[in-house]
Specification:
Elements lengths: L16 H14 L11 H8 L2 H8 L13 H24 L4 E5 L6 H4 L7 E6 L1 H13 L7 E6 L6 H7 L9 E3 L9 H6 L1
Parallel strand pairs: 1-2, 1-4, 2-3
Length: 196
């Protein structure tokens, strides 16, 4: 489901539903007896979006069969857990080495700013569409969640001048930064990938 130049995007339809699917996979992975990740915010975020297939999957109304090659939520959860842990470890290693600035492009329903331990003085920039940032911030605030770092949300379409929006939120271009674009590029048209 690549993006086009004039498409719309939300968390319950179009390419935006992939952010909800990733959060649902993180929620399932967090339920495992010895979980590779622990994302206590994934399930409430998915439920708040209200995308039927994912809420039913989390409530048990959709059986998590491993026999269906086309739709295997358990395998998806395992894959997302590995990917999530990889990037969690990436940020941990970066901050352990002294970096104090990090950016998550197309942050979607990612909750690293709330669930990870960040060193004091770390600025974490989450960049995504304004409506996604607003939804996630409102939902997590309603849950009583608070960021564990200096979270700076940047509501901007990545097809626009997102570097200027990032700088406007205090991004220091002279500071070494840890960047991730987790699961993003495949959804951008080729020219947007090149511009990014």
């Amino acid at each position: 489901m690549p993006r086009t130049d004039n498409d719309t995007w939300d968390l319950a339809s179009s390419v935006g539903v992939t952010a909800t699917g990733v959060a649902a996979a993180r929620a399932l992975a967090s339920r495992e007896p010895n979980p590779l990740i622990n994302d206590p915010f994934a399930e409430p975020l998915v439920k708040a979006v209200g995308a039927d297939v994912f809420t039913k999957m989390l409530s048990g109304e959709i059986e998590l069969s491993e026999d269906d090659a086309a739709f295997n939520p358990r395998r998806m959860a395992e894959g997302m857990a590995v990917r999530t842990r990889y990037f969690d470890d990436f940020f941990t290693a970066a901050t352990d080495s002294g970096l104090r600035q990090a950016v998550i492009l197309a942050s979607g329903l990612d909750s690293r700013a709330y669930r990870m331990s960040w060193p004091a003085g770390t600025a974490l920039f989450e960049v995504d569409l304004p409506q996604v940032i607003e939804f996630k911030t409102r939902t997590l605030t309603d849950l009583g969640a608070e960021p564990t770092t200096d979270l700076r949300v940047v509501g901007v379409d990545l097809r626009n001048d997102w570097p200027a929006a990032l700088r406007a939120k205090g991004f220091d271009v002279a500071t070494t930064t840890a960047w991730i674009a987790e699961g993003l590029l495949v959804y951008l048209p080729p020219n947007a990938q090149d511009q990014l």
